[in-house]
Amino acid sequence: MFSFSDADTTSRRCVWVNGPVIVGAGPSGLAVAAGLRQQGVPFVILEQHDCIASLWQKRTYDRLKLHLPKQFCQLPDFPFPDHYPQYPNKKQFVDYLESYAAQFDISPHFNECVQTAKYDDACRLWRVRTVDASGSDGSPAEVEYICQWLVVATGENAERVVPDIPGLAEFGGEVIHACDYKSGESYKGKNVLVVGCGNSGMEVSLDLCNHDAKPAMVVRSSVHVLPREVFGKSTFEVAMLLMKWLPLWLVDKIMLVLAWMVLGNMEKYGLKRPSAGPLQLKNMHGKTPVLDIGALEKIRSREIEVVPGIRRFSSGTVELVTGEKLEINSVVMATGYRSNVPYWLQESEFFGKNGLPTSPFPNGWKGKAGLYAVGFTRRGLAGASADAVRISQDIGRIWKDDLKQKKQKVPTHRRCISTF
Asked: What single string gives the DSSP state of each residue in 239-296?
């Protein structure tokens, strides 16, 4: 980086980036950065928090492990260490990502929150404006990055979703989102309502049980629950193997038969299956099936109570749609996450109102005018890694072609004071 002084210290600092700006330093952003580094393409990676993989480091519970075997979760050109277990825990995965960043010399700009990103049609460049609140004098510093390519790597799970439930403000007890839940240790002996029955809801309920709390889990709709392993093999691995030879509908039927053999009939416990199969539902709506790691055993023994939807909250109680009332001390909202892209990216063609690419998989990684997206495939880390390879190779090809045609020139801009 080359820096120059500016007489007007109150003006926004402007930075020209010779390569792409990557927004987000989670696994997706790191994977793109590593691919670019291998091809010699310069880049800047912006992260609003003070660490890489902030979702994993700051917004996950202590007992979290990868739900899929490690070979399906590794980033490009960097396998997990051999001594890691098949399902690495939270700390091991964070350590792996730290090693990945060190291996490929990736140094994100931390504490830089992107306020807006907009394509400038006049100069055919992206303008990315950030605020850095970590200045020495405590005042936020504004920076504008100018670049040819913009890689959106903030992912599908950037922002918590908290539903508006009648009476919640009157409840009076503790209400937190699953991203703020760490352990059931402080809930011993308490009645806890877990709203949501996805992987997070199931695992939080299990953790509460293991700490002698009394969880009731809200199941509003149907859900696919599959065993994490069948006959000693990862269920996901079995499904991927079958997909090579059989149509999706038949693989779904086989997976449901295997689930019934291992887990039995779950409808009598309040867990009804959707009419669409687990893989079909995942492909059509991005809804991930639950992989059971012990919660079903607690449901069978009634240590986890399955309850229907909520009608309203009141002081210390919740009324269900059946009219039944439960006395509860705390609420954990395992109600999922969503993309935050609509809040800062001023673009309405490539990304939809839900913050996800409008083009279906596998074409949702590249837009127009140098815009890219990674980590939005709803296919986990494997999907993000595949898109990261495509993006880094595409940018690398254009970069090398440009170098052959002409010398790199820094565009004239009256406020540009530094260059990457």
From this structure: HHHHHTTS-HHHHHHHHHHHHHHHH---GGGT-PPPSS-HHHHHHHH--PPEEESSHH
State the pTM of this model: 0.90
Q: Report the Cα 410 to chain-centroid distance in Å.
A: 35
Query: CB burial class (10 A; 0-12, 13-18, 19+) of residue 371?
Result: buried
Q: How would you classify the pairing of strands 214-218 and 337-338?
A: unpaired
In tens, the pLDDT along 358-388 reads 988 888 999 999 999 999 988 889 999 999 9
How far is CA 401 from its chain centroid? 33
- Look up residue 381 and give its amino acid: L
d(CA 407, CA 51): 36
List the helix and strand counts (H, then E) for the chain.
10, 24
Q: Which two tokens stand for residue 287?
A: 């809804």
Q: What tokens were used for 152?
A: 């959106």
Q: Which residues contact 240 (CB under 8 A, 6 or more apart)?
A: 72
Q: What is the mean pLDDT of residues 125-135?
A: 86
CB neighbours (10 Å) of residue 60?
Answer: 18
Helix, strand, coil tally for the chain in percent (to 5):
30, 25, 45
Q: What is the CA radius of gyration of the chain?
A: 24
33-37, 249-253, 400-404: least confident range: 400-404
SS3 call for 78? strand
Task: At 54, give phi and psi (nearest 5°).
Answer: -60, -30
Give me the torsion for CA of 65, 67, 69, 70, rounded to 10°: -50
